[in-house]
């Protein structure tokens, strides 16, 4: 089969499976509302959990940073590493209690970099089976042996850890899982990992900024300090990019050998300026975090009697499992017709038969917004 035929076959299969992905053209997005193709909707698919993407301080920080240039001009290993970036890394490390922080262009790139660099052919990677695609893809491409443990089940992890290994062990999990919205039992996982003399990597993309004192995230909240902590800035921070928190030796190792870091253009000064402002805003966002928790509780009370499966999540991510792809798409369209934008998430992002509406709540939502969403969902359930 030639390339053209192979591509066409894959596209046809994707359409037949009701799994076709599209990118809607967005004219306006204020966290609470979104305008797509001229139509305005209440927005329930944003990861901007604290509503900071529209915060005046972040916009001013971006504008101020841009005075140093629209782009960094080079890799950080050439001339792209600026004083503002060093200061941000130091601030992040101090905030989370680590010796070092390293900035990356994205969480996906960071996860690829650290796993690819650490995992040798004699090592083993033990990952929660529902870990993010960036983690599982990196682990599957690494020369190390990859084994997956049952989702959020420390006993399953312990059984794998009890098996002999010739090399080092890296345990991989998330703080809050992006598609189920549930939290990992990090204390138990950390204890089991330490007993086996392994290292723990926690990707806290959806916990940082939202949970813990000053928004320090899931690890802080559960009293855990993994050897490798990944945080990203495209969710509660309202910007983009990511950082690795680690010790001095690991940071130096990454700087010397991590190709994703060495050969990528550094983050632009404008983005660094926005991230400085975002860090301060996150630290001062106790009121927004309290509002978000109130919104989550209000939604869960109202959604408890819906006929679909509402997963047991206490986070901003509230998945409503519908089942088949076509049914999830149909419900998403029905909600859109009533003015509520909720994306349908389908395999391979989630396991087959668990297509869902991934409802995300933010501090920017008002009680009447959530009431409207609940009204539309109950109307759809009664049809």
What gross morphology would you assign?
A: globular
Give the N-to-C terminal Cα separation. 46 Å
Strand content: 15-25%
Number of helices: 14
- What is Rg? 21 Å
Structural class: alpha/beta
| Total beta strands | 15
Low-confidence stretches: none
Averaged pLDDT, please? 95
Q: What spatial order of strands do you see in the largest sheet?
A: 4-10-9-8-7-5-6
Main β-sheet: number of strands, strand sense, barrel status? 7 strands, mixed
Helix and strand succession?
Answer: HEEEHHEHEHEHEHEHEEHHHHEEHEEEH
What percentage of residues falls in helices of 4 or more residues? 40-55%
Can you characterise this structure?
The chain has about 375 residues and is an alpha/beta fold. It contains 14 helices and 15 strands. The protein has helices at about 5-15, 55-65, 85-95, 105-120, 135-140, 155-160, 185-195, 220, 250-255, 260, 270-285, 285-305, 325-335, 365-380; strands at about 25-30, 35, 40-45, 100-105, 125-130, 145-150, 170-175, 200-205, 230, 240-245, 310, 315-325, 340, 345, 355-360. The strands form 3 sheets. A 7-stranded mixed beta sheet has the order 4-10-9-8-7-5-6, with helices on both faces. Helix 2 packs antiparallel against helix 11, helix 3 (about 85-95) runs parallel beside helix 11 (about 270-285) and helix 6 packs parallel to helix 7. The longest helix is centred in the C-terminal third of the chain and has 18 residues, at about 285-305. The protein is globular.
